Amino acid sequence: MAHFPEKGERTPWHVSVLTLFPEMFPGPLGVSLVGQALEAGLWTLATVPIREFGIGRHRAVDDTPAGGGAGMVMRADVLAAAVDHARGAVPDVPLIYLSPRGEPLTQKLAAELAAGPGVMLLAGRFEGVDERVIAARGMREVSIGDYVLSGGEIAAMVLIDAAVRLLPGVIGAAESLGEESFEGGLLEYPQYTKPREFEGRAIPEVLLSGDHKKIAEWRRAEAERITAERRPDLIAGRPAKRPS
Ligand code: ADE
User: Fold this and answer.
1) Looking at the whole model, is its pTM more than 0.85?
2) Residues lining ligand 1, judged by CB closer than 6 Å?
3) Closest ligand 1 atom to the C-alpha of 99?
4) Is the domain of 123 the same as that of 181?
5) Whose CA is nearest to atom 5 of ligand 1?
6) What is the domain-level CATH number for residue 227?
7) Which residues, other chains included, contact 19 with Cβ-Cβ below 8 Å and sequence gap of 6+?
8) pLDDT tens by residue, 37-47
9) Which of 18, 20, 74, 99 to probe ligand 1 with, by most ligand atoms within 8 A of CB?
10) What is the pLDDT of residues 102-149, one digit of tens each?
11) Do 153 and 100 touch, CB atoms closer than 8 A?
């Protein structure tokens, strides 16, 4: 699965994932929109099997925590070797360690990463990684939410999916990115399609009116209502007036 770009080869958006479980990739990233973009070469994916950089006959990647306590910690020297190997092939991408301790993954961060050359992602396992390698290799820590996963791989996939769909050419002109959730700091308004009536529930009359101004106003009001109900924190964080 590891195919690093050749020197001089144009690689629109390159992802390397450092993991103990390379067989998890591309997994769900190999299907649908993001999978088609991968096949089309709009982004490229290389996995770096951390085990190959392990120490000794058993290729040890972890050890007991200094100071005692439960679980195992991934070794700084092993991870540094894996990072340095991957960096040799793609030197200029930001390096992110997926961790529940990190800054939250937001639509803004996904867009920021999509605008860059790609990402290098470290997916941890066990109790975490030796703190020194985070500092020594300048890793940015990113969390996908306030819960603990058994490893960073699924978090890495979430980040990749969120960024890849924003790359130029991934989403066609017909499918708009403009009006989805978080655009303008609001959740998305409700959507309806045929049939006109479903189990006694009708499509809101205004959507069938053909009055585009009224429809836009209704959608805006619904987006504000839903956001206020479900995510008042988003309302609080919004600028008072949206730039038009
Ligand atoms: N690894 C384990 N839990 C995580 C989370 N919530 N976000 C990112 N990486 C993780």
Assistant:
1) yes
2) 98-100, 143-145, 147-149, 152, 155
3) 9
4) no
5) 100
6) 1.10.1270.20
7) 25, 47, 48, 49, 50, 123, 152, 153, 156
8) 999 999 999 99
9) 99
10) 999 999 999 999 999 999 999 998 889 999 999 999 999 999 999 999
11) no
